Amino acid sequence: MPDRTITELTIRRPDDWHLHLRDGAMLRAVLPETTRHFARAIVMPNLVPPVVTSTHAMEYRARILAALPEGAKFTPLMTLYLTEETEPADVRTAFEAGIATAVKLYPAGATTNSASGVRDFDKVRPVLETMAEIGMPLCVHGEVTDSDIDIFDREAVFIDKILRPLRKKVPDLRVVMEHVTTSDAVDYVRDSHKNMAATITTHHLIINRNHILAGGIKPHFYCLPVAKREAHRVALVQAAISGDKRFFLGTDSAPHTDPNKLQACGCAGIFTAPNTMSCLAEVFDVAGKLKKLEAFTSLNGPNFYRLPPNEDTITLIKGDPVRYPDQIPTEDGPVTVFDPGFDLHWRVEG
Ligand code: NCD
Ligand code: ZN
To answer: Ligand 1, closest atom to CA 223?
Structure first.
């Protein structure tokens, strides 16, 4: 029987191992939504233009630190956007100087602002070998982009066509397959005994493709990789609540203004930063696995990234439905907050 008697839970402060913070007015508007609960985040580099070099990463980090709300203690962990021109020596410097924590691989054209991504994987082999040598993780957007591959198959095909061969060629490379959405990915990560982990988002634990498409199209549930059928969502929940060290939270909170989402060709991305911890507590509680929440949000990520877990804690308290805003205002327009479609009973203190 699931244990649903817990009403208060104190866990180490969580980290977000995949986050989009954007820049400028959007950065200022969304950053407090993350720093309220999270101590660190792996910050995605898909700005326009992308964060490609150690110099870009240093400058972007400075802009994030300048936008922090007063008193916030938050460490942005920067990533470099891998291109076919990335210099191994720059990557090494960035890692060894603590400027960048990981490198991000976007297959060219995979998602929002990924035009400069990688087309020919042999061209980035020297960078990957350097990363393997220094132990720097590669964060992978695991979807092929070929137009003849069905969008619902793109992750599974990526594993077979790109990820397996790449990991055979550079076996010491430490890889995070990000925002996994399929049981294929969960099985692949579970079968990998070394150098492999995966992040799971908040929304992929909650929605399947029916939420996007049945009963009218719901742009606020559209993200990449796109949510798959229910059996895949269930596999993701099983992986998240298992406590398995290879799975941890990366929200992929990806704010876009409503005007940019609600149009004939709307942007991909779901904004979950404000209510992620309440959503996750609900999912773990319903599964009777609240005691595994800390591993997923606060322990497994630092363990893979070889960083200490946070010393301080947050407390989750169960009670009346939590209120959170439907939208966050920004100077560019409102950004809609993820609606899980059910009441959230867990509020965060501390
Ligand atoms: C992300 C974004 O908007 O930057 N969108 C998304 O749907 N997740 C890009 C990404 O991580 O794929
Ligand atoms: Zn993302």
So the answer is: 7
Annotation marks residue 252 as catalytic? yes
Q: CA-to-CA distance for 235 and 256, rounded, in angstroms?
A: 28
Q: Do 347 and 316 meet the contact criterion of CB atoms below 8 Å apart?
A: yes
Q: Which of 15, 244, 252, 285 is catalytic?
A: 252
Confirm whether 71 is domain-assigned. yes
| Inside any domain, residue 205 | yes
Q: Is residue 224 in contact with ligand 1, taking CB distance under 6 Å?
A: yes
Q: Give me ligand 1 centre to Cα 114, in Å.
A: 9
Flag whether 282 is in a domain.
yes
Instruction: Indicate the top mutation candidate among 47, 104, 112 to test ligand 1's pocket, ranked by most ligand atoms within 8 A of CB.
Output: 112
Domain harbouring 208, CATH code: 3.20.20.140
Q: Which residues touch 97 (CB under 8 Å, ≥6 apart)?
A: 54
pLDDT in tens, 262-314: 999 999 999 999 999 999 999 999 999 999 999 999 999 999 999 999 999 99
Is residue 1 situated within a structural domain? no
- Give the Cα separation of 306 and 324 in Å (integer): 34
Q: What is the C-alpha separation between 107 and 91, in angstroms, rounded?
A: 19
Query: What pTM value is reported for the model?
Result: 0.97
Domain assignment of residue 227, given as a range: 8-349
Per-residue pLDDT tens digits for 103-119: 999 998 877 778 888 98
Work out how many domains the chain is built from and give that number.
1
